[in-house]
Amino acid sequence: MSHSTADAVIPVRVGHSPDPDDAFMFYALAREKLPTGRYRFTHELQDIETLNRRALNGELELTAVSVHGYAYVADKYVLCNCGASMGDRYGPMVVAGRPGSIDDLRGRRIAVPGTLTTAFLTLKLLLGDDFEPIVRPFDVILEDVAAGSVDAGLIIHEGQLTYGDLKLHCIVDLGQWWYELTGLPLPLGANAIRRDLGEAVIGEVTDLLLQSIRYGLENREAALEYALQFGRDLDRSRADRFVGMYVNEWTLDFGETGRRAVAELLRRGHEAGVIPQLVEPEFVGIRG
Fold first, then answer.
1. Half-sphere exposure of 258 (CA within 13 A, CB side)
2. What is the dihedral of CA 46, 70, 12, 218, to 10 degrees?
3. In this predicted model, which residue has the larger pLDDT, 103 or 287?
4. Domains and CATH numbers, the chain
5. Extended strands (E) in the chain
6. Residue 234 neighbours by CB distance under 10 Å
7. Which DSSP symbol is given to 143?
8. Quick one: what percent of the chain has pLDDT higher than 70?
């Protein structure tokens, strides 16, 4: 390879959601704390359902995706082995204006943050078709439930910590339900990199993502300060707690258990008829 080809700048458009855990992960890259060599990162912040749908068209080189969403783009993207958001006995919740049971959700109108989200897939595994999903932006669902315009809401991101502020009640924590069902953490989100970049670029960009995550964990106060601007209703204490929930050892490496959890979720989604084809997940640098 000639020097001109090897040294040419390679643009990498990164998509992630505007929430504290993603911001924390990408802090070092967004604030140019790391040498990135020939790569030039630009960041596009959009909600996860929008990113899932952009991934269907292979628009971004590196993007956050729901693990459910990955099932529909596995031909275009491979999963990075770092950058996971894992719900370890916690995760998306269904909340309502009054206490109730899972059976009380059947036949109800439930606001959901998109049909490609892992939260939606998990709710389908729980209730099947026995509810009416109302697709809404993730950041208005709590208000919808409080206003009574829907019977319940499927909440993701920081809503998991703030629903009580609106005097709402958790009917089911899907991360806990999944753990009781499978003994595994619930793999909610991941980072995926486009296959057509080639093996060398995929490896180098994934390594830079891992460096960024490590930098944030090793420089927690500065990374948290940056992430706070994406916290909406979170104070510093809650933002710190939320980041700790979703940026941790799982984020550095899915590990064998995390990878098994991804495969199990996709398998169950297919068996339930939600995911049309059985997808065997592929991870950068992991063979077999």
1. 26
2. 80
3. 103
4. 3-86+187-271 (3.40.190.10), 93-182 (3.40.190.10)
5. 10-16, 39-45, 62-66, 77-79, 85-87, 93-96, 109-112, 132-135, 152-155, 169-173, 186-194
6. 21
7. H
8. 97
Closest CA to 45 of 202, 227, 216: 227
Question: Which residues are tagged catalytic?
Answer: 157
Model confidence at 209: pLDDT above 90: yes
User: Which 3 state secondary structure label does DSSP give 34?
Assistant: coil
269-87-64-36 Cα dihedral, nearest 10 degrees: -140
CB 65 within 8 A of CB 192: yes
pLDDT at 234: 81
Q: Is 198 helix (H, G, I), strand (E, B) or coil?
A: coil
What is the C-alpha to C-alpha distance for residues 61 and 73, in angstroms, rounded to an integer? 13
Categorise residue 14: left if φ over 0, alpha if ψ from -120 to 50, beta otherwise. beta
pLDDT for residue 191 is more than 70: yes
- 233 pLDDT higher than 90: no
Q: What is the DSSP letter of 264?
A: H
Q: What is the pTM of this model?
A: 0.94
Contact 93/155 with Cβ under 8 angstroms?
yes
Q: What is the rounded average pLDDT of the residues 229-248? A: 87
**Dihedral of the alpha carbons of 33, 36, 40, 43, in degrees to the nearest 10:** -40
- What are 145's two structure tokens? 């439930």
- When pLDDT is averaged across residues 35-56 and rounded to a whole number, the result is 96
Q: Which of 71, 10, 3 is nearest to 36 (CA)?
A: 10
pLDDT at 263 over 80: yes
Cβ atoms of residues 69 and 272 within 8 Å? no
Please give the Cα distance from 114 to 263 (Å, whole number).
21
